[in-house]
Write a structure and sequence with these properties.
The protein is mainly alpha-helical. Helix content is 72%, strand content 7%. It has ten helices and three strands. It has a three-stranded antiparallel beta sheet with strand order 1-2-3. β1 and β2 form a beta hairpin. α2 crosses α3, α2 packs antiparallel against α9 and α6 crosses α8. It is elongated, with a radius of gyration of 28 Å. The two termini are 31 Å apart.
């Protein structure tokens, strides 16, 4: 009889988990998790690139090292290598975020997609953004970034510029008209002038994306969460649906501390000491 009960318990667990795996809410949760993780990866790379560019343009001591005749080649090579690595990671994360968000948006109602497209167009319209989106393909299929490092000494001090040589970039034919026009206006593409406003605009865009996604998918997510609670109740024999697990884990840690200290442990439900 016990064996029969075990089989029934296992069969019910398999049924519940199969239902949960196929539930629209589970898929919705995974889709938004993909967007959140991709955004975090891109945002981290954006901060790293922005700080690196800022150092080359504002750190007077470092600028002097870049420009001097004695140590400059070694310093410039190390800095250029760091710029290369960071920019490649930044562009890769940016492309992944855009592609993943576009895929997720397609699974949402027309209302969401229309608003997302409108908000995205505002971000893409920032001066120079077209170029960095094209730059991903340039560095994937054509060549490395043609860095241009320069500095000017004035009465107020040193001013630096870290950018890309437009003439070198234009050797490739893979630019759209907006990107070409931008490069023709700027002999050197100063990346910090693009990366900084782009990052500032992407933050509210994806805050909106996250909020609206959950608003549209809330019924599916709530239903999936109810299934999760049922699975947990089944696993624990009706003891808990999992919502109090953080508190239970904390209570277990406290009882472990009590045991090590030779103190009586307590019951989670009543808080009373456990008498052995």
């Amino acid at each position: 009889m016990a064996h029969s009960n075990d089989d029934a318990h296992a069969a019910e667990y398999e049924r519940l988990t199969a239902e949960l795996d196929a539930h629209p809410g589970t898929l919705a949760n995974q889709m938004m998790s993909d967007v959140v993780r991709a955004f975090r990866a891109w945002f981290q790379r954006s901060q790293e690139l922005r700080k690196l560019l800022h150092r080359g343009e504002t750190d007077a001591t470092f600028q002097m090292e870049l420009m001097q005749n004695v140590h400059a080649p070694t310093v410039r090579e190390a800095y250029t290598h760091e710029l290369d690595s960071t920019l490649v990671a930044y562009l890769g994360a940016m492309g992944a975020l855009i592609d993943i968000a576009r895929r997720v948006a397609k699974a949402l109602p027309d209302e969401f997609r229309t608003e997302y497209d409108a908000r995205s167009k505002v971000v893409r319209a920032i001066d120079g953004v077209s170029l960095i989106r094209d730059l991903r393909n340039y560095m994937l299929h054509y060549g490395v970034a043609p860095w241009h490092l320069s500095g000017t000494i004035t009465a107020e001090g040193m001013t630096g510029r870290v950018g890309l040589a437009s003439r070198e970039l234009l050797r490739s034919s893979g630019w759209n008209a907006v990107s070409k026009a931008y490069m023709k206006k700027h002999e050197v593409v100063r990346l910090s002038a693009i990366v900084t406003p782009y990052e500032a605009a992407m933050l509210p865009l994806y805050e909106w994306f996250n909020e609206e996604f959950y608003r549209h998918k809330k019924p599916d997510l709530d239903a999936a969460n109810e299934l999760v609670r049922n699975v947990n109740l089944h696993l624990t024999g009706g003891v808990t649906d999992g919502q109090d697990w953080p508190e239970r884990m904390e209570h277990m840690q406290e009882n472990l501390r009590r045991w090590k200290a030779g103190e009586p442990q307590t019951d989670y439900e009543t808080g009373e000491p456990i008498i052995e």
